[in-house]
Amino acid sequence: QVQLVESGGGLVQAGGSLRLSCVASGRTFSSYNMGWFRQAPGKERELVAHISWSGVSTSYADSVKGRFTISRDNAKNTVYLQMNSLKPEDTADYYCNRGGTPYFDWGQGTQVTVSS
User: Fold this and answer.
1) What percent of the chain is helix, strand and coil (3-state, nearest 5)?
2) Do you find a cis peptide bond into 102, omega within 30 degrees of 0?
3) Low-confidence residues of the chain: pLDDT under 50
């Protein structure tokens, strides 16, 4: 089973940037498509960015397209999410996981708060 540990969140002003990291345990990490998800208070968890196992293919939710960039380093078992031009509506807990079901056990997430 793969274990996931997210980090890099924090408090930032609107227009600012953050880089999130997700380190995965397990030797088979590089076999999986991965995604970054977020969950805002009172809302369902949503997929915001997806990356193929090789890193060649990426896709984004319309709400973050052009502002967020997902990448991965399979040698380091790590997936990244570069977030630029942050908006208050990006405030949420952010999680990484497989890009589709069945999901791994969810990590603790990392909190992102964007002030206006």
Assistant:
1) 10, 45, 45
2) yes
3) none
Q: How many helices (H) and strands (E) does the chain have?
A: 0, 10
pLDDT (0 to 100) of residue 29 = 83
Rg, C-alpha atoms of the chain: 13
End-to-end CA distance of the chain: 40
Cα distances from 113 to residues 21, 34, 94, in angstroms, run 16, 23, 10
Average pLDDT, rounded, for the chain:
96
The long-range contacts involving 91-94, CB below 8 angstroms and separated by at least 24 positions, are 91/40, 92/38, 92/39, 92/40, 92/41, 92/43, 93/9, 93/38, 93/39, 93/40, 94/6, 94/9, 94/20, 94/36, 94/37, 94/38
pLDDT tens column, 16-33 = 999 999 999 977 888 999
